[in-house]
């Protein structure tokens, strides 16, 4: 304090007795505030406080928000997994899977108790999908069990629905292994309980969503998950198995490859899909079908047919119903869609009720026509005959020219009889040219394939081809038959091509424009391959056209990746005689160097050589001899010359012929692959063991007794972190077998282990120490 403000004075002394006698003021407690209704509170009457509401749940994150640090961690996991999936074979030189398994196990530990939040997160859900392909059976069981009780909410979520769909797709492998009895060893405890198998978890998931299954079909996010679930319970056809739309498939393609990051698990998924399903799955699918019948009436089922969300799911349900043999039951789902036609034809196959306007409109509907394709292909035969007579007969030409109904008609032709096929060809006469102009080649191809199978109406199909492409009887037009069909043009359009880009042509765009600008069309090549399956008098027109073309045109066809398949079909088709195949091969003898010096042409030349007999093979080899040096310097021709073994032919022709006789003819790949035979479980293990021995690239040198003793006692230092899925009994079997070791060798080993460890090296001298 400044001096000018300081003042002197006497201080008053405090009276202790007075202070002690004076009572202290009592602290008054605050009166409790009573809540009054809004109209009695202070303030104007028109101001009313809103009642306090609880925090609403975020619909985009129904199980809570994810921590930002966790999201950042899984973002790094996604980057590493994509790097491994894009760069196959990258990793450690000795054991590339060791580091990857440790990385995946660390990510799974971090994912524990956060599965629901990760599945509903927009960014982390993609990481979960990528991790599912690299999980073993035990990890998948833990992941499925952790989300039990929440699958209905997950199905309805935009991002979690795709996680569930991927989970059902990869679960096919686990279910197949469990059906064979290959279960991983699991440590069970009384506190944690027993971990359910993937088979039991799938059934429990279906039972969980069963009460609201009819509502999930109409949900835009849950519909595709229900299809994936039905595909897991009862395998569907390949046409229905594509669960993603074009937009969804394009988005997923941008996310990179979705596959396992382990090098030793490539190609296993395709083998497992062919295996069957457990019997419990069929019973579970049957309960789902019965539940849908009880919860929906006929009008509701028919309303789903033209619904863009529910119609694809209903297609899968009809597939399952047909696979289980429930179609012919009274009041089945297919019976409701056909307005009672299935039940009527089942009771009386010759009955023909009145045609329904509802089905007539569905055939021409852009959405419902996909479902009718499944219905036509899977309905009982009496029902199909009734559908043909009521809705296809006498309307075949109009339906074939319709943009949506053409696909239903093409699917119906695949199972029509010979009489129905001939009537369809008669109705279509005069409209073949219109089909080609509208690019409805699939109907024409279906007619040709059915005629080749039934051996009926083949001549009418060939005449229809001539009419559709405006090919006259002149030899010049008949020579251009193959180019006309490949380009889907008339002979005049082939002679005078008009170079014009498509209407939506964009030179900067890389995609479908390149295919549109290609003059050779895939549909034309497929039509030619179907024509080659006709009987001998009718398929010869195609081979004659191929032989009559000039060299430049023949080389264009042989060097094109699409049209070269027509040449393959000449040798693959059993209807083409051996004489015709030989004549066509001889047309290439003088022009083999030009044919072989190309990526596609070299493959065609190998097909010509493989399908020839020994005499014709020698002719091919001797035709190549003058051009051996030129073809040896060619990038593609050198492989063909190396396969001919021309050096042996020049020195020892007899040995060369004997070598060609010993070679078995190349097995021709059929157009429709046959299903693989069922394999027994017992010899499968021995077969796999033999294959692993053959595939080993390293030389197996015999180990001496010392090496065998050390490997038995100490074990291998480098071990993989792979979680084996073999059975427990099979794992303990090799451990029981012990090697008999000589006592002297065991004594040597014991002496080596007991030797002191510090005697091996010399100690370093310190600086300045005396020697």
Automatic annotation (TrEMBL):
<feature type="region of interest" description="Disordered">
    <location>
        <begin position="495"/>
        <end position="517"/>
    </location>
</feature>
<protein>
    <recommendedName>
        <fullName>Nucleolar protein 9</fullName>
    </recommendedName>
</protein>
<dbReference type="GO" id="GO:0000447">
    <property type="term" value="P:endonucleolytic cleavage in ITS1 to separate SSU-rRNA from 5.8S rRNA and LSU-rRNA from tricistronic rRNA transcript (SSU-rRNA, 5.8S rRNA, LSU-rRNA)"/>
</dbReference>
<keyword id="KW-0175">Coiled coil</keyword>
<dbReference type="GO" id="GO:0030686">
    <property type="term" value="C:90S preribosome"/>
</dbReference>
<feature type="compositionally biased region" description="Basic residues">
    <location>
        <begin position="762"/>
        <end position="771"/>
    </location>
</feature>
<dbReference type="GO" id="GO:0000056">
    <property type="term" value="P:ribosomal small subunit export from nucleus"/>
</dbReference>
<dbReference type="GO" id="GO:0000480">
    <property type="term" value="P:endonucleolytic cleavage in 5'-ETS of tricistronic rRNA transcript (SSU-rRNA, 5.8S rRNA, LSU-rRNA)"/>
</dbReference>
<dbReference type="InterPro" id="IPR001313">
    <property type="entry name" value="Pumilio_RNA-bd_rpt"/>
</dbReference>
<keyword id="KW-0677">Repeat</keyword>
<dbReference type="GO" id="GO:0030688">
    <property type="term" value="C:preribosome, small subunit precursor"/>
</dbReference>
<dbReference type="GO" id="GO:0003723">
    <property type="term" value="F:RNA binding"/>
</dbReference>
<feature type="compositionally biased region" description="Low complexity">
    <location>
        <begin position="27"/>
        <end position="42"/>
    </location>
</feature>
<feature type="compositionally biased region" description="Basic residues">
    <location>
        <begin position="1"/>
        <end position="15"/>
    </location>
</feature>
<feature type="region of interest" description="Disordered">
    <location>
        <begin position="663"/>
        <end position="713"/>
    </location>
</feature>
<dbReference type="InterPro" id="IPR011989">
    <property type="entry name" value="ARM-like"/>
</dbReference>
<feature type="region of interest" description="Disordered">
    <location>
        <begin position="751"/>
        <end position="771"/>
    </location>
</feature>
<dbReference type="Pfam" id="PF22493">
    <property type="entry name" value="PUF_NOP9"/>
</dbReference>
<dbReference type="GO" id="GO:0000472">
    <property type="term" value="P:endonucleolytic cleavage to generate mature 5'-end of SSU-rRNA from (SSU-rRNA, 5.8S rRNA, LSU-rRNA)"/>
</dbReference>
<dbReference type="InterPro" id="IPR016024">
    <property type="entry name" value="ARM-type_fold"/>
</dbReference>
<dbReference type="InterPro" id="IPR040000">
    <property type="entry name" value="NOP9"/>
</dbReference>
<feature type="coiled-coil region">
    <location>
        <begin position="411"/>
        <end position="438"/>
    </location>
</feature>
<dbReference type="GO" id="GO:0005730">
    <property type="term" value="C:nucleolus"/>
</dbReference>
<feature type="region of interest" description="Disordered">
    <location>
        <begin position="1"/>
        <end position="67"/>
    </location>
</feature>
């Amino acid at each position: 304090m400044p001096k000018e403000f300081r003042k002197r004075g006497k201080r008053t002394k405090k009276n202790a007795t007075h202070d002690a006698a004076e009572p202290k003021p009592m602290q008054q407690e605050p009166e409790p505030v009573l809540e009054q209704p809004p109209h009695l509170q202070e303030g104007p009457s028109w101001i009313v406080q809103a009642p306090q509401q609880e925090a609403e749940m975020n619909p985009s994150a129904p199980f809570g928000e994810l921590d930002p640090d966790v999201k950042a961690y899984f973002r790094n996991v996604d980057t590493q997994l994509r790097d491994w999936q894009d760069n196959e074979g990258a990793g450690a030189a000795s054991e590339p899977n060791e580091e990857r398994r440790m990385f995946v196990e660390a990510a799974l530990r971090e994912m524990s108790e956060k599965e629901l939040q990760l599945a509903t997160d927009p960014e982390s859900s993609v990481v979960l999908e990528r991790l599912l392909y690299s999980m073993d059976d035990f990890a998948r069981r833990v992941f499925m069990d952790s989300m039990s009780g929440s699958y209905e909410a997950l199905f309805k979520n935009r991002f979690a629905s795709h996680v569930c769909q991927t989970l059902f797709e990869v679960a096919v492998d686990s279910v197949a292994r469990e059906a064979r009895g290959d279960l991983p060893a699991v440590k069970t405890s009384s506190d944690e309980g027993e971990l359910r198998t993937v088979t039991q978890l799938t059934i429990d998931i279906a039972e969980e969503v069963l009460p609201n299954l009819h509502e999930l079909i109409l949900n835009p996010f849950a519909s595709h998950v229900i299809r994936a679930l039905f595909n897991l319970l009862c395998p569907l056809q390949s046409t229905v198995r594509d669960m993603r739309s074009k937009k969804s498939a394009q988005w997923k393609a941008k996310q990179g490859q979705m596959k396992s990051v382990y090098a030793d698990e490539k190609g296993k998924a395709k083998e497992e899909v062919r295996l069957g399903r457990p019997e419990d799955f069929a019973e579970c699918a049957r309960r789902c079908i019965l539940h849908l019948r009880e919860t929906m009436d006929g009008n509701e089922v028919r309303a789903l047919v033209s619904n863009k969300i529910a119609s694809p799911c209903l297609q899968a349900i009809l597939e399952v119903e047909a696979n289980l043999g429930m179609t012919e039951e009274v009041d089945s789902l297919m019976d409701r869609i056909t307005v009672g036609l299935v039940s009527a034809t089942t009771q009386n196959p010759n009955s023909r009720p009145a045609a329904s306007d509802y089905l007539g409109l569905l055939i021409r509907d852009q959405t419902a026509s996909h479902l009718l394709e499944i219905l036509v292909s899977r309905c009982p035969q009496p029902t199909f005959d009734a559908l043909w007579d009521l809705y296809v007969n006498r309307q075949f030409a109009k339906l074939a020219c319709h943009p949506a109904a053409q696909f239903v008609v093409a699917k119906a032709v695949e199972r029509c009889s010979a009489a129905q096929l001939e009537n369809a060809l008669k109705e279509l006469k005069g409209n073949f040219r219109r089909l080609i102009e509208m690019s409805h080649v699939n109907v024409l191809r279906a007619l040709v394939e059915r005629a080749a199978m039934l051996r009926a109406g083949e001549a009418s199909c060939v005449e229809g081809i001539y009419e559709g492409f405006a090919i006259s009887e002149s030899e010049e037009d008949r020579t251009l038959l193959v180019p006309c069909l490949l380009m889907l043009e008339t002979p005049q359009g082939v002679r005078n091509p008009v170079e014009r880009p498509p209407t939506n042509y964009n030179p900067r765009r890389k995609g479908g424009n390149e295919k549109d600008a290609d003059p050779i069309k895939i549909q034309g090549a497929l039509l030619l391959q179907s024509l080659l399956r006709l009987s001998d008098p009718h398929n010869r027109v195609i081979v004659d056209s191929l032989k009559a073309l000039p060299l430049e045109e023949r080389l264009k066809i042989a060097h094109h990746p699409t049209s070269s398949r027509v040449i393959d079909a000449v040798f693959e088709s059993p209807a083409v005689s051996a004489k015709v195949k030989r004549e066509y091969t001889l047309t290439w003898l003088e022009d083999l160097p030009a044919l072989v010096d190309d990526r596609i042409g070299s493959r065609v030349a190998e097909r010509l050589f493989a399908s020839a007999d020994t005499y014709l093979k020698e002719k091919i080899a001797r035709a190549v001899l003058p051009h051996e040096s030129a073809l040896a310097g060619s990038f593609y021709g050198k492989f063909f010359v190396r396969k001919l073994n021309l050096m042996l032919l020049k020195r020892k022709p007899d040995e060369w012929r004997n070598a060609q006789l010993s070679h078995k003819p190349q097995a021709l790949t059929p157009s429709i692959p046959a299903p693989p035979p069922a394999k027994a479980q017992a010899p499968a293990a021995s077969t796999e063991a033999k294959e692993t021995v053959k595939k080993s690239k390293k030389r197996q040198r015999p180990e001496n007794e010392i090496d065998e003793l050390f490997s038995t006692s100490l074990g291998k230092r480098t071990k993989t972190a792979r979680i084996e899925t073999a059975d427990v009994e099979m794992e303990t079997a090799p451990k029981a077998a012990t090697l008999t070791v000589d006592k002297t060798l065991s004594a040597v080993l014991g002496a080596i282990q007991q030797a002191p460890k510090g005697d091996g090296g010399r100690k370093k001298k310190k600086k300045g120490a005396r020697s």
